[in-house]
Amino acid sequence: MLEITDLVHSYGSHRVLGGVSFSVAEGELVSVVGPSGCGKSTLLRSVAGLIRPSGGRITLGGEPVERTPDNLAIVFQDYSRSLFPWMSAANNVALPLRRKGMDRRRRREAAMTALEQVGLADAGGKFPWEMSGGMQQRVSIARALAYRPSLLLMDEPFGSVDAQTREDLEDLVLNVCAHHGITILLITHDIDESVYVGDRVIVLTRSPTRVAADLEIGLGRSRDQIATRQLDAFVRLRAEVGRLVRGGHTTTPASVLEKH
Amino acid sequence: MNYARVLRGVVGAAGFLAAAELVGMSGLVDDRFLPRMSTVLAGAAGLVTDQDFLADAGATLTVWLLGLLLTVAVAVPAGLLLGTLPRAEAAVRPLIEFLRPIPSVAVIPLAILLFSDNLNLKLAVIVYASSWPVLINTIYGLKDVDPLAKETLRSFGFAPLPVLARVALPSAAPFIATGIRVASGIAIILAISAELMAGGSEGIGIYITEAASGSRVDLMLAATLWAGLFGVVADSVMVALERRLFRWHHVRTGGAR
To answer: One GO MF term, please (chain A) (predicted)?
Structure first.
């Protein structure tokens, strides 16, 4: 459903993306991992139509992305900046639904349902600044869910929460993906996380960024923070992704694992 | 505001009043030039039931309120425009920086020449002088809006104008409110200055002028005292309102309480 072909982007003379190509199928959860400063956020912003890339092609559901596509939602790392502090959690979740032409009551209902799905059934009346970081990020996720996007982009969504919360949120996203059949493109710098949540992992090189590898994870959808991480396959994949991120793509038989 | 702070403020004010009274009692100053503090305070209390003074005060407050409303109606939209159009702002900036430091009272004689109607004259100088803080704060408030907050709504497909209305305006609102509070102080100064310089039929400034022509320094000071009190009350009401309306802002910036 998402097709990225030869995506190129430069800031001035600095070329960040040097021809990135990959695709995401309907209902997939694809994690994108790469060294810091490799243009992951540039990639995400291009897909969202927030910036116009210097070159290449992005299509979403067959349509070229020229400005922000409909039915797309983003969860940003920085929930405290991305949620509106003058609104309650429920109103934050309900606000984007105005774009859907829903009336006040239906927006409210949809917001409550989404908050329930992320485990915040009772927190709708709270303000973001009255909540912990993990709760705030749950509100951001609820806001994205309520919008029922066909593609959900997540930019380092768990980068600003503590380890325990991070695990909870990872499982929440896995759940959401399984139950709602949403297609998710999740960007992270965390190698372990990319393997734990992904159906596929796209590893990016340093800038000018290209796709170093496109790995099928094949661990199934039901994952467990402890058990999954103990699996031989998980350990092997994590090591593989780790090597690739560090730029050593010749040390192991990556070709065996690679899909394409 | 905590109790000890308020207490210190009261002690300071009471100390000043007592000292002024003592100077008056000692006979160091001729009380035709500087009446005793107790006389001034008694005069101020008497003004509460003085129909003439009440009409004057009402007139000044009406002009103040009208002027402030006009200021908001002019300066907020202008600030929104300049805050969202950086090129236009760059073009207008030097002009603003030149006009702003001119003491506003200096434009009153010009206004007297330009306006035949006394009310228009007062409103014009109030709007001219009070617009600066509102304008500047609106521009800065908009510049300060978190780009990520705007991107969030953009990513949900909101067009520039709705993004301005739903993110930029609420984010900038606390700054705009502060600008309006500063403007309200300026507006009362300009209202009375215009009355003093341009004359007219009623207003606190007119009352002061008339008291002066009758050599009633005690009533001049009493009226002045009321003008000052009004300024303090208006300011505190607005501070309280800001705290209430923009609690989210004060919590975030750590300025709570």
So the answer is: ATP binding
The strand ranges marked E within A65-209 are 72-75, 151-155, 183-188, 200-204
Kindly determine whether residue B152 and residue A82, on different chains, have CB atoms separated by under 8 Å: yes
For residues A204 and A210, what is the distance between their CA atoms, to the nearest angstrom?
6
For B33-252, give the CATH class.
mainly alpha
- Kindly state the DSSP code that residue A226 receives in the 8-state scheme: T
The label of the residue with tokens 């980068």 reads: A159
Q: What per-residue confidence (pLDDT) applies to A256?
A: 46
Chain A residues with at least one Cβ partner in B under 8 Å: 48, 50, 68-70, 72-74, 76, 78, 81-82, 84-86, 95-96, 99, 127, 129, 147, 153
Report the sign of the C-alpha dihedral through residues B35, B229, B65, B51, in that order.
negative
Residue of B141, B196, B131, B189 lying closest to B164 (CA atoms): B141
Residue B240 distance to chain A (closest CA, Å): 17
For the residues B64-76, what does the mean pLDDT come to? 97
Tally the C-alpha atoms within 13 A of residue A180's C-alpha that lie toward its C-beta.
24
Contacts of B148 in chain A (CB under 8 A): 76, 78, 81-82
List the domains of chain A with CATH numbers. 1-71+153-225+233-260 (3.40.50.300), 83-148 (no CATH)
| C-alpha pair distances (Å), B191 with each of A86, A193, B198, B234 | 35, 65, 10, 15
The alpha carbon of residue A36 is apart from the nearest alpha carbon of chain B, in Å, by 20
Contact B157 A73 (CB under 8 A): no
Residue B232 amino acid letter: V
Nearest to B36 by CA among B47, B46, B19, B21: B21
The CA angle A113-A116-A122, to the nearest 5 degrees, is 115
Share of chain B above pLDDT 70, in %: 98
Chosen for mutation from A95, A150, A187 (greatest number of chain B CBs closer than 10 Å) is A95
State yes or no: pLDDT of A249 exceeds 90.
Answer: no
- Residues 6 or more apart from B114 whose CB is under 8 A from it? B121, B124
Q: CA-based diameter of chain A, in Å?
A: 58
B7-42 exposure pattern, b = at least 16 Cβ within 10 A, e = fewer: eeeeeeeeeeeeebbeebeeeeeeeeebbbbebbbe
Residue B100 CA to residue A33 CA, distance in Å, equals 52
Condensed to tens digits (0 to 9), the pLDDT of residues A153-174 reads 999 988 888 888 889 899 988 8
How far apart CA B64 and CA B119 sit, in angstroms, is 11
A244: enclosing H helix or E strand: helix A232-245
Give the neighbor-by-neighbor strand order of the sheet with A2-11: A14-24, A2-11, A55-60, A63-64
